[in-house]
């Protein structure tokens, strides 16, 4: 890994802080972090550095929101996500940095546009319940719901393997499924702790995680935990409408950044 200048390290430290913040507050904000890492480091190399930091953030999020996860949704997603991870591994073995950035940016913007359109339609429909999804509601159940879960699952697995960009895809799925703030954060926390941990052997096998990348992680992790604490403090002060808007806005910003970098 090439020598990192003080300015570049400051950018990575700020992005690591945002990793922790996104895990316990506004999930889509993490796309900004992956874009920063992809600017400072080569795109493929950046994914290997970022993954251990994401896992630390996932652990922080699970400690805070572990009781709010909706496990039927998680079990519904995991098979499709596994297929997406395998596809992403094959893509990483063949694609160059520019293709990685452009592909992920395009996916994020397309998913954002789709979710915005669906939310506009929902806003014109009669209002539904404001409660957390529970076993009696089973968000994503039914044939249409299962197909949607599979589609988002494959995309989430692909994007999280290729560029650690599965957060926005899963955020859009959970928002479209009607999850409220705590259910959203709890389900997302467990999902990414399990998925990101399962990606480690693939990343090691591709040479994305090695000794130098772990040394850099050992320093940057010092910024992830304070970011997670900051996110936890602010999450309870953000109302549902603002929360949804911030997730969508952060997703769009991250997608545009990746397209410009490509």
Structural notes for this entry:
By secondary structure, this protein is mostly helical. Helices cover 80% and strands 0% of the residues. The protein has 10 helices and no strands. α5 runs antiparallel to α6. The chain is globular, with a radius of gyration of 17 Å. Residues 127-137 have low confidence and may be disordered.
Q: Between the first and last Cα atoms, what is the distance in angstroms?
A: 21 Å
Q: How large is the share of residues in beta strands?
A: under 5%
The low-confidence parts are 127-137
Number of strands: 0
Instruction: Bin the helical content.
Output: over 70%
Provide the gyration radius in Å: 17 Å
Write a compact overview of the structure shown.
This protein is mostly helical. The chain is 80% helix and 0% strand.
């Amino acid at each position: 890994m090439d020598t990192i200048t003080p300015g570049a390290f400051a950018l990575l430290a700020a992005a690591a802080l945002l990793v922790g913040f996104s895990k316990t507050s506004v999930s889509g904000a993490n796309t900004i972090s992956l874009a920063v890492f992809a600017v400072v480091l080569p795109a493929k190399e950046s994914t290997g550095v970022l993954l251990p930091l994401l896992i630390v953030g996932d652990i922080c999020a699970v400690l805070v929101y572990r009781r709010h996860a909706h496990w039927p949704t998680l079990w519904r997603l995991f098979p499709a996500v596994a297929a997406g991870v395998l596809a992403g591994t094959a893509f990483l073995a063949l694609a160059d940095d520019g293709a990685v950035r452009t592909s992920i940016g395009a996916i994020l913007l397309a998913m954002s546009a789709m979710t915005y359109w669906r939310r506009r339609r929902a806003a014109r429909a009669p209002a539904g319940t404001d409660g957390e999804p529970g076993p009696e509601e089973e968000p994503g159940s039914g044939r249409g719901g299962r197909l949607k879960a599979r589609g988002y699952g494959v995309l989430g697995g692909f994007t999280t393997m290729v560029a650690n960009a599965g957060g926005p895809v899963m955020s859009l799925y959970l928002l479209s499924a009607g999850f409220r703030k705590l259910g959203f954060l709890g389900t997302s926390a467990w999902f990414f702790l399990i998925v990101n941990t399962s990606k480690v052997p693939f990343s090691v096998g591709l040479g994305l995680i090695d000794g130098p990348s772990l040394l850099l992680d050992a320093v940057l992790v010092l910024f992830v935990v304070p970011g997670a604490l900051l996110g936890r403090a602010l999450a309870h002060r953000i109302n549902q409408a603002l929360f949804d808007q911030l997730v969508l806005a952060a997703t769009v910003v991250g997608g545009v950044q990746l397209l410009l970098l490509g």
